[in-house]
Amino acid sequence: MAKAAFNVSELNNYIKKLISMDYILRDITITGEVTNVNIHNNGNIYFSLKDKFARIDAMASQDDVKVELLDGVNVMARGTVTYYERSGRIFLYATEIKLDGKGNLYQKYLKLKEKLSNEGLFDASHKKKIKKYPSSIGLITSTSGAAIKDVVNLFRKRNKTCDIYIFPSLVQGDAASCNLISGVKYFNEVNIVDTIIIARGGGSFEDLFVFNDEKLAREIFASKIPVISAVGHEIDYTICDFVSDLRAATPTNAAELATISEDEILSQLSKKLSDLNNLMERRISYSHLKLLNLYKNISLKNQVHKINFMTRDLLYRETLLNNSMKKILQAYGYELQKKRFYLQNFKLNKSKEIENYSYRLKNISVKLNSKISKNRESLDFNKKFLNYYFNSQIKDKFDKFKNYEKFILNYGLEERLKNEKERLNFLNIRLNSAYNKINKVEIFTEDGLEINSAKNAKIGEIISLKFKDGSVKSKVQKVEMRD
User: Fold this and answer.
1) Helix, strand or coil for residue 274?
2) Which of 41, 130, 147, 481 would give a disulfide with 251, using CB separation of 3.0 to 4.6 Å?
3) Which of 101, 105, 90 is CA-nearest to residue 204?
4) What is the pLDDT of residues 214-241, one digit of tens each?
5) Predicted confidence (pLDDT) per residue in 101-124, tens digit
6) pTM above 0.70?
7) In Å, how far are 42, 96, 97, 102 from 66, measured between CA atoms?
8) Which residues of 241-254 are buried (b: 16+ CB within 10 A; e: fewer)?
9) How far apart are CA 245 and CA 123, in angstroms?
C-alpha cells in the first residue's frame, strides 16, 4: 500500500521543526562576505553572506548592527538559522555582527579612500562646474547593459538638440578599469563634449569594485572636462563617486543632472518673454503718458513752424557772425602786429627813461636830506637864540620892575604890579609853548600811551619818538632822574 502524500505546507512545516530542533543552528557564528545589502523601511537589514562556493540569505535588526554593512565586507555573523515555510527559504537571523579581521575588498577600498582623501582628490575646491546648457555629452559605459538604453532614452526625451558620444567600455572585470581610463583620456584629447558621464547599472560590491581603481580615480581628477559618476544604485558608493565632479544616484539621474530638459528651457524662455513683454508695456505706457503731457503743453504745428523759422534765422545769423568775425580778426591782426612792434620799442625807451628818473630821484633825495639837515641845524640855532633873547628881555624887564617895586608899593600900585607879573608869566608860558611847538618831540609806548616823564620809562621798553617830520623807534637802555 502506498504511503500518504504530504502537501507543500506540511513538508515546509516539518523542515522548519527539524531545523528549529537542531541546537547547533540555534546559536551559530558564520563568516562570509556581505553582498546585496538592502535597508528596509521596517527597520530590518536584508543581505546575503557568501564564500567561493555558496551563499545564504540573512536578516538583522538595525538596532543590533553596530557596524556599517556594505557590499564586499567580510563579517562574522552570530545568530539563528531559521526556515521560512511560506517561501521555502532558509536564512540566518543575525543578532550580532562583527567585521572579520581578514584582508578583503572593503579594506582595500577604505585604504584607497583614505589615501586619496589625504591627497586632496576629493576636495570640493577641485570640483569643476557642470555646464548648464551642454551641446554634447560623452558617455562611457557598456553597450550591452541596461544603463546605456536608459540614459540615451532619457536624453532624447529631455533634449533632442544635445549630441551623445558613446565610448564602449567594459564595466566589470580585470580589463574594465583600462577601458574606463581610455574613455576619459579619449574625450579629453578630442575635446568634443562638455560633460563626461561614467555609467553602470547596479551590482554587488565586487562587481562594482572596478570603479575603485586608483589609476581611474587619478585620471578622473586630471580630466579637464567635468565628470559625472553614475555607478550602481543610490546606496552604492565607489572611489569614482568621490573623485568625480558630481555624483548621480543612478545612470538616469546622471542624464537629468547633465542636461536641462526642453520643457524647462521653454518654461524659462516663456517666463523671460513674459517679463520682457511686461517691461515693454510699462515703458510704452510711461512714454505714452509723457507724450500726452507734452502734447497738452505745446501745439505741434506751431512749434514745428517756429522751430523751422528759428533754425533758418539761426543759420543766417551764424553765417553773419562767421563773416563778421573773419573781418574783425583780419583787421585786428594787422593792428595787433603794429601795437606789438610799438610796445617793444616803447618798453625799450621807457626802460631807459625809468633809469634816468631813478638816477635823478636819488640825487634829489640826497640834496633834500642835506637841506633838511641844514634847516634843522638853523632851526636849533634860532631856537637857542630866541630863548636867550627872550630870557634876557624878561630878566631886564624883571630887574626894572624890581627897581620900581618900592615906588609902586608906596603909590598904591601893588595891584598893577601883580597884574603885570601875571601878564609876564603868561607871555613866558606862551613863549615856551611856541618853542616846544617849533621842535616838539612826542614819546609813546608800544601800547600808544604818551610818556611825559623820565620816571615813566622802563629799561628795555620799545618807544616811539614822533618829530615834526617823522618818527623813530628806540629801545630804552638807561634812565637818569634829575634832583
Assistant:
1) helix
2) 147
3) 105
4) 999 999 999 999 999 988 777 778 889 9
5) 544 577 778 888 889 899 998 898
6) no
7) 18, 8, 7, 18
8) bbbbbbbbbbbbbb
9) 10
Please name the residues in contact with 465: beta carbons below 8 A apart, sequence gap of 6 or more.
Answer: 441, 442, 443, 471, 472, 473, 474
The span from the CA of 403 to the CA of 108, in Å, is: 158
Phi, psi angles (nearest 5°) of residue 33: -100, 130
Residue identified by cell 515555510 is 85
Q: How far apart are CA 190 and CA 291, in angstroms?
A: 59
Matching residue, cell 567580510: 74
Torsion of CA 455, 461, 466, 469, to 10 degrees: 130
Cell of 93: 537571523
Which pLDDT score, from 0 to 100, does residue 197 have?
Answer: 92
Residues 85 and 99: their CA atoms lie apart, in Å, by 30
Query: What would the grid cell of residue 235 be?
Result: 546606496
- Report the SS3 class of residue 39: strand
Determine the Cα–Cα distance for residues 260 and 263; give it in Å rounded to an integer.
8
Residue owning grid cell 600808544: 448
Note the helical H segments in 201-261.
214-222, 239-243, 251-258
